[in-house]
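ok so I'm stuck.
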Amino acid sequence: MTLPEARTPFQFYTRLSLCELTGLRAVTLSQLLKFLQTLPGSVIFHHTHHYLQEHQYLTPEPPNDFASWVGEVLGEKKLGEELAGVNTVAFPTIRALRERLIGSIERSLRAHPFSYLRFAKPEEAFHFVKSVSVILPTPYRAKDLKEFAECVEATTLDSLYFHLFEARLRLERGRNDFSAWLEEDLSEAASAQAIASLDPYTHTMEELRQIILRLLHRRLEAFQGAVVQ
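replied:
not stuck anymore, here's the structure
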């Protein structure tokens, strides 16, 4: 079976992630808002995505650090629930995600001025952490759909995480690397869309790997069937 070759082979990368304390903290909702407006995107990324990075084998709803602190420490239950309901996967960039979080807090402060008077205890302050990533190439490289499936099966979960989540949002590429390559370099629009529509909040990274492999294998079987006919 001769498969179409990509215009550009897909190079798999992996990531090493470090957490760095910024030294900044908030004890009120207005302070949290101020820092959300000014801190770098790496801080927003850490507090909305570190659960997916650290618990790749678990599937409970990933907590949003901002939502947890606002709801549990400050007692702003309604706002906490609103922030927890923000679907980070729906945002193409950290900037868009930041604006969504800021908008929710600003509306809440306007509607409930007494929120300004709520203070967290010093030991319960929100400490801002920055995510620092080091991106490294792996030995895996694919020029067609079969090689791509083999690489997806063999590469690490950190590599999958980088291409499915971090590259799309933190690097502001708009969509995950797999979908972009499949559509732009292999003209596999249907497979690209199927991967782009996967919900990471209901699957572990290993489950996502297996789902993607099933999609790719079905497509390979379709190629095989076309050759036989």
